[in-house]
Design brief:
Helices cover 48% and strands 15% of the residues. The chain is an alpha/beta fold and 364 residues long.
Amino acid sequence: MPVGGAEDLVAAIVRGLDPQRFAAAVATLGPPGPVGQELRARGYEVVSLGLDIKRTSTWRVVGEVRRLLKAGRPDILHTHLYHPNLYGRLGSLGLGLPGVVAAVHNSYTRIKFHRRVWNFLLGWASDRVLVGSVQVWQDVRRYDGVPAGRLLLMPYGIPLAELNTRLSRKEARERLGLSEGDLVIGAVGRLEEQKGHVHLLAALPELQRQIPDLAVLLVGEGREEEDLRRQVRELGLSSSVRFLGTRRDLPEIYRALDLFVHPSLWEGLPLALLKAMGAGVPVVATRVSGSQEAIVDGVNGCLVAPGDPDALGRAILELYLHPEARRRLGETARCTVAARYSLEAMLVRLEDLYLELWRRGKHI
């Protein structure tokens, strides 16, 4: 469980379930990772199978998962992301678990035939397939052929209280070595092709010419980091762009920002974006999947076409020139998240689903 949206969502679910009714445990195919270690430190059970799924045969992984499930006999198995969905559901076949739930987190930009086959077959072995956005619902229905009656749209929720920080804007900036006069832009996400950082960087040379004190913070790690650092050097952006790596102090990061930019090429429902909105930061995002479902352009954020650095740059410059518009968008964004994307609301629906499956499974 590296630091990421899906992993943080799992941790939030485990911590948020009513402990009087639910005993939650987490299993990882590989190492527990930082998020798994954080859960262990809080006293939750985290079991690591320690497998390298790239070098381990499918059936050996399935066998290990099946042994774990037979030993633990959970009432509800809830898997997240493609490989856990695959191995978890295969491992559960024939065990008679009361409830099997799989969560799909991303829209299907690149369709892989073998994944469609597995997802179609295992859709019939799932009591529910959860999706966080309408686009993902449509993709799973269209490409995997999962019956509509087994699909459930459940937008993600974020823990709003955890976004609070006692730091002032000035203090948050001082901790990052930033000044009050800077226009500070932040992007939070894995440094992977999907997140579109290359297009944000391509928009910056023109912005750097028009915004004298521009600071851009990239939070996250990933396979694209070296290429992105090279792009920064080649574009002459080294004085403006800072790579902060993985951070667990996001509320303090958000407090320091003037703008949050989410330039993804494809998404599910991005939690980093929802957290920025929940923290009251005005956002510029691409018109993809869950982002365009959470944002009404010009009302609680700005939307631009994915993969278009010029459009991204124009939107950022427009908000730079109109601070009152930034303030209004940030306030409306916070209200949107409180009303539609709170963790508490999601947990109520998830607990109801777990109990419904458990009761039904016990009576079959």
